[in-house]
Amino acid sequence: MSNIKEKAIRIILFFVLGIFSGFLAKYVDTIPSNSAIGSLINIISNISSRIGIWVFIAAIIAARSRTPKVGAIHVFTFFVGMLLAYYIYSMKLFNFFPVYYFIRWGLIVLASPLAAYAVWFSRGSGWFAALCAALPIGMLVSEGYNFLYTFSPVSGFYLIAAIILFCILPKNKYQYLKVLIFTILTSVLLSKFDVLSYIIGGL
């Protein structure tokens, strides 16, 4: 019984964390960017309004979970809380509910348990585990590689996030090479065919 209670508490905590994240992501959108602090907040707003940071957070949650099923539940719960808080807050601020964007993000939230389930295996050994690790890392690299010539703070964040995942997901030094190979392939494919634009459209 206590085990069930602990699981329920964890789910509630991830839901609350999602609510806080959604509220914060929308709140930074409302801060003017006509000052030094405002400019920093604007960068944070640009980061939080794109999918990369949420992929980064979800990958960490999934990889650190005890089982793939638990990881899927925690990630889904987090995103449900975030989505509800973000759009309810938007509705309260502007008295307008953007149905189109809510549905698009909602579809991503519905798909998140499958992605989280796969990412859980990224901390294992072998080529399959390497592929599971490379998917979120490659996505972040494809979004951040242009930092090398644009020096965009948002792109720089994605590269840092990709490096962090690359450091914490592979299990050993032999796994790093496998993950690197798949990461290069994933990022090239995502960039060349602009896959993310088809998936998330104008989000």
Automatic annotation (TrEMBL):
Keywords: Membrane, Transmembrane, Transmembrane helix. It holds the Pfam family DUF6518. The chain crosses the membrane at residues 12-28, 40-63, 70-89, 101-120, 127-145, 151-169, 176-200. This is Uncharacterized protein.
